[in-house]
Amino acid sequence: MALTLYDLAGAEPNRRFSPYCWRIRLALAHKQLPVETIPWRFTDKDVIAFSGQGRVPVLVDADKALAGSWTIANYLEQKYPDRSLFGGPVGAALTRFVESWTDTILQPGLVPLILVDVFARLHEKDRAYFRASREQRLGMTLEAACADRDKRVIGFRQSLEPLRTTLRGQSFLGGETPNYADYIVFGAFMWARSTSPFELMEKDDPVALWRGRLLDRFEVAGRAPGYDD
Amino acid sequence: MALTLYDLAGAEPNRRFSPYCWRIRLALAHKQLPVETIPWRFTDKDVIAFSGQGRVPVLVDADKALAGSWTIANYLEQKYPDRSLFGGPVGAALTRFVESWTDTILQPGLVPLILVDVFARLHEKDRAYFRASREQRLGMTLEAACADRDKRVIGFRQSLEPLRTTLRGQSFLGGETPNYADYIVFGAFMWARSTSPFELMEKDDPVALWRGRLLDRFEVAGRAPGYDD
Fold it and tell me: Which domain does B147 fall in, by range?
């Protein structure tokens, strides 16, 4: 098989939960490119040392190794131009804004709602590393960060308003069909779905309905181990 | 002249400050379409009654009248396809997310920083209407809404993070050159610049630098009456 993706996994090898890896798994599915995924844990640094850095996603295409979701998505778009991920250069530029919103608002907003559950799904060998690195970043314990999540979810739902308003008017961020901007945002929800039973949204939230359309559309996501809230 | 735009003005006819009208003025400049603009005030409802509603922007193109910035932008894109505003259908779909972010986060974030200054720039005949309608919407006086703006600006600057992160990596939201997504966001800053001397950003903020690039690029904006912070 030509393509290999190193993909973050929990204790169970098929529980894949990295939001950045999900972006690429959906990009590959969008382009209908078969891929072999290799379950990888945070502490398997040596396994991907050949990529020159220590984080996933790492994609191997024949003799090429690529790291970083944006780099990989652009590589796929260039190397396999059929079924565009961006709809052209302006689409790619605007996708960066969706990515920035996801990285600076959506994902940080999910942290205090799901991080204890992410921890609970980890492989034993990753736990000490994960707890120490995240608690240093947060300046508090995982448990303290996720205290009061029943209250904090209200602010989280409000923070989705730009996404919600957009999805009231169109089926996907990309328009009538999804594209890479959708997969960036959806990756964050797959991170949550793969690890946490916590209910993020009301069932009739336009964001929840959009997530449902993507779960229906992509087997790789819809059949992945996770919690349906 | 073929195109006429009804454009919200303050006491001085050349002080144009509607963020939605600015979107269209920039779209017209982008397409290099000459336009006659007519200063319009909130209480001039009868003047645009022909458009079927009571708000600007209203664009008249020969025998056609169009209202609403998104409708007008799409009309211009179809009727005058040279120099695309969206870069294709995916670009147009993704622009909706930028618009939603601007409408639900950026502009509401500016309200408590500039609204008293907007009021001070209004034509005498608009003041009672503006104060009554805005205070009903806000549930408080204009002055109360803008109290503590020196403190609130900190949260406003934080809210720009998705925009800031994007503009650290590229010159414009549209990529190497600006397009309608830029004009949507820039319109909000023109609303502020036209009415308020309040300093929204540090001078070296990537958002301030981007705003400067657009002011330099478009005379219609750069030469408009306003406050340089």
Answer: 89-218
Domain endpoint, select from B15, B46, B79? B79
Q: What is the DSSP secondary-structure string of B58-85? A: EEEETTEEEESHHHHHHHHHHHS-SS-S
The domain that holds B22 is classified in CATH as: 3.40.30.10
Percent of chain A with pLDDT over 90: 98
Is the Cβ of A169 closer than 8 Å to some Cβ of chain B? yes
CB pairs under 8 A between A and B: 105
CATH number of the domain enclosing A150:
1.20.1050.130
Checking if the pLDDT of B219 tops 90, the result is yes
B148 and B205 both lie in a single domain: yes
What pLDDT, on the 0 to 100 scale, is given for residue A52?
Answer: 95
Q: The tokens of A23 are what?
A: 């972006």
| Beta strands per DSSP E along chain A | 3-8, 36-40, 58-61, 64-67
- Which residue in chain A has the smallest CA separation from B181? A94
* Partners of residue B66 on adjacent β-strands: B59
pLDDT at position A107 over 70 = yes
By the CB < 8 Å criterion, does A74 face chain B? no
Residues A143/A173, Cβ–Cβ less than 8 Å: no
User: Which amino acid belongs to residue A37?
Assistant: T
Is A86 near chain B, with CB under 8 Å?
yes
Q: What is the pLDDT of residue B1?
A: 53
Nearest CA in chain B to A84: B90
What is the C-alpha end-to-end distance of chain B, expressed in Å?
A: 35
The C-alpha atoms of residue A91 and residue A96 are separated, in whole angstroms, by 9
Question: Are B223 and B190 in contact, with CB atoms under 8 Å apart?
Answer: no
The helix/strand/coil state of B141 is: coil
Q: Where are the beta strands (DSSP E) in chain B?
A: 3-8, 36-40, 58-61, 64-67
Residue listed under structure tokens 């131009």: A81
Say yes or no: A141 contacts chain B, CB-CB below 8 A.
Answer: no
When pLDDT is cut at 50, 70 and 90, the band that residue B2 belongs to is confident
Whether pTM exceeds 0.95 = yes
Residue B53: Cβ within 10 Å count: 11
Q: What is the pLDDT of residues A49-98, one digit of tens each?
A: 999 999 999 999 999 999 999 999 999 999 999 999 999 999 999 999 99
* SS3 state at A125: helix
**Residue B84 located in a structural domain:** no
The answer, yes or no, to whether residue B174 has pLDDT greater than 60, is yes
